Structure to design on (224 residues):
């Protein structure tokens, strides 16, 4: 079964500290992985996608097929990074069917 | 208004009521989606429409009935719902349904079934 697991429901760090939000997936094929973010009082939006291999707002994520992980990292967290982060997987095919994790609420303290 | 809009933003209904959720996108996209976000559960895909044709029904109960009259509008008709159907219902759209197509989300409708 296809599944996305975000083991941490809550994550709290101090400003300037490194942050890593964990994401593990379960899928026998080659999925595409994404991170979506929802800031307070804003709608859910795409943060970054595996296939683009880009850094957005200082965040990066590397797909590790051996560990079936797609952890989101930022070396120096900022207060404005506080938000709900969702890892999502597309298992491919003709439909853009995203499977989401439960999300991790990141709080960056001053 | 730009982007993806949803109305109403909040809805309270009884189990015997019939109501509809509306989604409109102003992005010129061809694909639209309904998601359900329940407390303590992941965001769940319900339906996918591509060029007005339903291409995905993720085993959704028949008390939820989607309608896509054109590429810009998507409805979710609700009838004889159960209290466990209370959730945030999100609409999204994308240019098409390929892997490279980013989904843009609406603000959601918070539904409470009494």
């Amino acid at each position: 079964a296809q599944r996305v697991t975000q083991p941490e429901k809550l994550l709290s760090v101090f400003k300037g500290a490194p942050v890593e939000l964990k994401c593990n997936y379960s899928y026998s094929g080659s999925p595409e992985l994404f991170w979506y973010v929802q800031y307070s009082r804003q709608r859910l939006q795409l943060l970054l996608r595996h296939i683009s291999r880009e850094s957005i707002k200082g965040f990066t994520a590397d797909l590790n097929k051996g560990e079936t992980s797609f952890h989101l990292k930022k070396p120096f967290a900022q207060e404005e990074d506080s938000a709900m982060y969702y890892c999502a997987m597309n298992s491919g095919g003709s439909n853009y069917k995203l499977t989401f994790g439960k999300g991790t609420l990141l709080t960056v303290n001053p | 208004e730009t982007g993806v809009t949803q109305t109403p933003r909040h809805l309270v209904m009884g189990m015997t009521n019939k109501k509809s959720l509306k989604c409109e996108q102003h992005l010129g996209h061809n694909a639209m989606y309904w998601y359900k976000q329940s407390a303590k559960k992941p965001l769940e895909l319900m339906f996918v429409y591509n060029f007005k044709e339903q291409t995905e029904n993720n085993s959704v109960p028949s008390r939820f009935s989607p309608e896509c009259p054109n590429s810009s509008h998507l409805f979710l008709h609700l009838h004889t719902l159960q209290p466990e159907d209370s959730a945030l219902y999100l609409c999204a759209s994308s240019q098409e349904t390929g892997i490279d197509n980013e989904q843009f989300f609406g603000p959601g409708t918070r539904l409470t079934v009494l």
